[in-house]
Fold this sequence. Notes:
The protein has twelve helices and no strands. By secondary structure, it is mostly helical. It has one domain (about 1-255). The two termini are about 35 Å apart.
Amino acid sequence: MKRHLRLFLLYLAQYTKVRLAYKADFIIAFFSSMAATVLGFGFVLVLFSKIPKLQDWSFYEILFLYGFSLIPLGFFNVVSWNLYEFGDIYIIQGRFDRILLRPVDTLFQVIFEKFRLESLQEVATGTLVIWICVRHLGLDWGPFDCLWFALMVVCGAVIYLSVFLILTAVSFWFEDRVGIVPPVFNMLTFARYPLTIYSVFIQFMLSWIIPFGFASFYPTTHFLGRKTFTPYFHLVPVVAATFFVLSIFVWNRGVRNYSSTGS
Length: 263
């Protein structure tokens, strides 16, 4: 663990130096990411300018949910770059051979070779929005609530990482430059709103098949006093742990199935 932590810090420091060497490119990427975040909140504002409530969810409750969803997603996005490009770069171009030659875990190398540093703005923006919503909703948080909040953020990030790691590992069996990650990534938007506004099929899909609901919606229900969802809230760590173990299993099976391109 100590060795891998040191390697992580070295990876991060080295990539940060390289990324900041092209300041204009980084600034453009940062503001592009920020613009996408602002547009997302803009949609919520437009929506509530037309309706007073979304079912029985108020504006600040929806804003709380949207803000919370950004935090674990932001942490995931920081390390997600290689997962999106894995099939093209590592499988088709044969760069996974290089990964196998190094005396470091393959998954560790793939995840931490690149960082999307501009995605940290999602974490900062989500945290700011949560703070604003807590004040407007009059929520009384104690130390225990803060610990729960931190745990839910970690679990949410683990769920996102696990789901996309499973999808990425599919590239070991089905070689494709794009893969199946992009269409699933688009489903993240659904989990930024209460699952109750969707059909039963979508609720089931986002809870038990692709558990984005456990990464964003169900964690927020506890802090918003939605007692109906209490059993789901307590299942969040279980779902995160289950999908993480499953993703590691699928990844290891994929690595054993990998065949070099010879390039």
